[in-house]
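REQUEST
  id: r-88c1
  op: predict_structure
  target: Dihydrofolate reductase family protein
  payload:
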Amino acid sequence: MRTLSVTMSTTLDGVVQGLGRPDEDTRGGFDHGGWGPRYTDDVMMAEMGKGMSAPGDMLFGRRTWVDFRHAWADAEDGNPFTAHLNGARKYVASTTMTDADAWQNSVLLPGDAARTVAELKATDGPDLGVIGSAALVRSLHAAGLVDTYTLLIHPLVLGQGTRLFDDTSPLTEFTLTRSVVTGTGVIIATYART
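RESPONSE
  id: r-88c1
  status: 200
  body:
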């Protein structure tokens, strides 16, 4: 059976929307996009590199898969993350897509994400990692499918935006298994489901 690990950047108030660019996700009138890059430093890059160097398959929701495909599929920049993202098997959970042929090594998981991901987890194969994909993560969390979270907790409060956990999230306990503080004050904390 595979494990499922989530890596997610969040603010102190739990916002996960629009980390990378001002235009990344403006749903709901969100106007604080691009809040994350100024906190990137060598410590964060080294920690993310450790995760990217581990073998495993990736799992995305539709929106994140499309965004990542545009950013990474045709990139030839020598960035080690580019090679990892393009080379990894990528599963995309979607109820609206008809194929995932637009990005190499991608496999469509159609229909209900909790059901299809549970079936995928039950197979033999590499562990699964999720980056971003907040709506997908909330549904997988509610179904009890997330084994670990690595949260990059940024030292700011936005006061608006989509949060990782909301009123529908079930009570779940975790154990802190590792933590690192970056030079910019980001706490990178890994939690395992208790």
